[in-house]
Amino acid sequence: VSANAYSYCSVDTGSLDWAQSRCDADPTCYVLYSRLCSNETTWRFCNASVSVGTLLFSGPDTGSCTQFLVTSTTTRTTTSITTSSTKSTTSSTQTSTSTSTSVTSTSVTSTTSTITTVTATSTSLTTSTGTRGPITEASVLAEAEEELELLASAAPDGVAVVVQTAGATLVAQMVRSGSIRDNMQVKLTVPGSAISASIPGALLNGIAGDVIVSVTSFNSSGTLALASPKHGAALATPPVSIRILQVQGGKTSEAIFSGEFATPVLVELMSSNLSHAKCAYWDETERRWSSRGLTPAAALGQQCLGQFEDSNVLQKSAIIVEHWGLPFMSISRVKNEAKPQEVMRVMRACYKSLDLHTFNMADFGLVIQNHIVFLRQCLLVTRRPNEGLLEQAGLLAFPENPSTVKLFASQLCKAVQNCRQKKGKITNGARQIPEVLEIIKLLETESSVSAESSPRTPSRSPPPGESLSRRAPSSSSLDGIMVSPGRILASYGLKAKSSHAVTESREILEIYSSQEAHCSQCEPPALPAPKLAAAISRPAATGQVTIYLDSSRRALVRVIDGQMQVAEMFTGPAGFAMGRFPGEIVEYSSEMPNLLLGITQSKKQPKKLKVLKKPAAKAKSKAKAKAKSKSKARAQAQEQDEEEEEEEEEEEKQPDDEDLPATQEYPEEQEAEEEEPPLALAIVETAVVRAYGKMWYKNTKSYGIRQKFLANKQIFTVRSKDGSMKQNALMAVADAALHRLNTSQLSEQAVKTWVGQQVR
Fold first, then answer.
1. Is the dihedral of CA 197, 244, 158, 485 positive or negative?
2. Which of 500, 596, 734, 756 counts the most CB atoms within 10 A of its CB?
3. What confidence tier does 478 reach under pLDDT thresholds 50, 70, 90?
4. How far apart are CA 235 and CA 224, in angstroms?
5. How far apart (Å, rounded) are the C-alpha atoms in residues 108 and 166?
6. CA angle 24, 27, 33 (to 5 degrees)
7. How many whole angstroms separate alpha carbon 365 and alpha carbon 447?
8. Cα–Cα dist 162/610, whole Å
9. 147-191: per-residue pLDDT in tens?
10. Who wins on pLDDT, 327 or 258?
11. How far apart are CA 170 and CA 163, in angstroms?
12. Which is more confidently placed, 533 or 747?
């Protein structure tokens, strides 16, 4: 409550006049104005007038005089009230006049608002009541800025006015033009927080007319738009808005600045510093957090110091800093920002050549253990090394062996991805090897400070006729000028220490370590991916080495210059078989379980015919017995022939369609599939020759196109969309699809799309 409140009230101190009657005795009375100076009594104002329709109440006084001025149809006063509410809904009731407003807001939690009351000269009164939508910074400012400007302009010089709404707390102060001095500081502090702003008088002295300085602290509910994951930062404190308005000729407008600031603006966000926090403001034009023009003021005990050089930073809105915050944790996904030349230098420093057996294995833990030195240095260059980056860097470092480089990039990228998946799942890491834990700890630093995250949405200029104050409150295309701590301390009348060193900005300069980063000849050649299957079908002395698991041999196979070598397989310690090639002592791991080594391969043998014999008959004549035995033998042979014919017919027929002719595809491969148990996938999938087959499904009246390699999975079906196509028509489409898959270089998805265009 203002100490000068008595100057606004024409009633003597201590009296309570309710238009010749007491409000508690007559709730329907009409009140002109009233004033209460009591420590015990709670007074209420009840007005039955439809034009006002407001309920005001106050608790016991706390020692100073609480003032109530109620606007009615017969007075010329403006009402500002003290309210408290515990309602569960969010609503807003606004009573406005031609030059002033009175806002009463209720929030989802219990709040208390204290507003200084002033008088105005107006007799017209309108009332509007509505429900407020989602709380944002713009809606909160629009709700209370008119009332704040009016109250501050009518308040005495040097008296701060506080307005508290459901979404923010606003503090404003009027500074008359005659009282502004260059050596003064206008400091506004948000009640109940450590947020404050100090505006130098030299900055305000250049404004024509009176000045209104306001500081707005938004609640956490209003910061969702700026703290969302797509912006790459979370706020440690609610954002703060600072505005400077000029009042001239009874009109309020944004102040316009030009030139350099002789004394910086000091903004305090927190009472104590955080080592991992960084001050920033929201750049509306570039749609990102920025710290250009901000200097840490740790020597003063404050968190941020804003140094703005010219009007480009302020824009036309004259909002010094639209949103302040402390982003301390990055939420967005870490992107790869390294160049192939940088990774190539690390690769050359760690390897003389790429040893295939150190990474061509299924155990990613062993891969990391063998390449921990390279991964440690590579993760310092980029936090997300992808396969393309590693392959390009490998081609620059080892251009003579592209197939080994491609496999190296794939295996190490999968190993890092495996560690990233374990990052949030492991508890104490007792079961992990130390090298894997080291990589996981390096990946955990991806959630470090990322205030200067790259924008994901393009900047948009405001529509014609719309002010930039709402759309682009603060942005700059100029680099910040660093100010020494001695100058900062001197501007606030403090003595500088000799130990204070100038802190350089990290985002101003970009230094390239060598000319190699800009060398046009160092770019990787546009080489096609190696076709291992083609290398096997057309051997050539190229020096390439390919190792893969042969499912039919159940052994590792190595191809060197077109020559194939089969490894000797034996049981491995990790449950998977290992192989050793002739004349070598190096052991290679595979994905084939040890149990498959003991299974012998055997062909399916046909059933042998068994002659069924009956017990010997009783003694009869030899001729009769011989004739009877011959007739029975002929009958048995005929019966057995019929059974064999029936079995052959059943085998030839398809198991799921007896009415149609048999259409068994690839009988040799089908027999091999029935004979051999499923094996593990090959280590190098590109080394397996693609082959496909089809299978008819009676229930669904469709052909299934299946792989005849690796997992033998079904990739798509050939089925009539409306049921009008018969089996013969579907068979023709399926055969054409198989021809494209087996003979051309079309992908499975491309053939599937073609099949969808052929069927109806």
1. positive
2. 734
3. very low
4. 10
5. 8
6. 80
7. 24
8. 107
9. 566 666 666 666 777 877 767 788 888 888 777 777 788 888 888
10. 258
11. 5
12. 747
CA distance 567 to 572: 14
Dihedral of the alpha carbons of 151, 155, 157, 161, in degrees to the nearest 10 = -50
Confidence class for position 241, pLDDT limits 50, 70, 90: confident
Q: In the chain, what are the domains?
A: 1-132 (no CATH), 134-332+450-456+469-497 (2.60.220.50), 340-447 (no CATH), 532-598 (no CATH), 667-758 (no CATH)
Q: How far is CA 24 from CA 47, 55, 70, 168, in A?
A: 11, 13, 16, 34
Kind plus residue range of the DSSP H or E element containing 627? helix 622-652
SS3 readout for 98-151: CCCEEEEEECCCCEEECCCCCECCCCCCEEEEECCCCCCHHHHHHHHHHHHHHH
Q: Which two tokens stand for residue 350?
A: 């760690």
Give the best-scoring range by mean pLDDT among 123-132, 153-162, 340-349. 340-349
What's residue 742's pLDDT?
A: 83
Residue 542 has pLDDT above 80, yes or no: no
CA-wise closest residue to 6 among 82, 58, 67? 67
Contacts of 127 (CB under 8 A, 6+ apart): 51, 52, 53, 94, 95, 96
Residue 686 and residue 381: Cα distance in Å, rounded? Answer: 30
How many Cβ atoms sit within 10 Å of the Cβ of residue 269? 24
Q: Of 390, 392, 396, nearest to 409 (Cα)? A: 390
Alpha carbon distances (Å) from 321 to 299, 373, 457, 503, 587: 22, 45, 21, 22, 65
Rounded average pLDDT over 297-314: 39
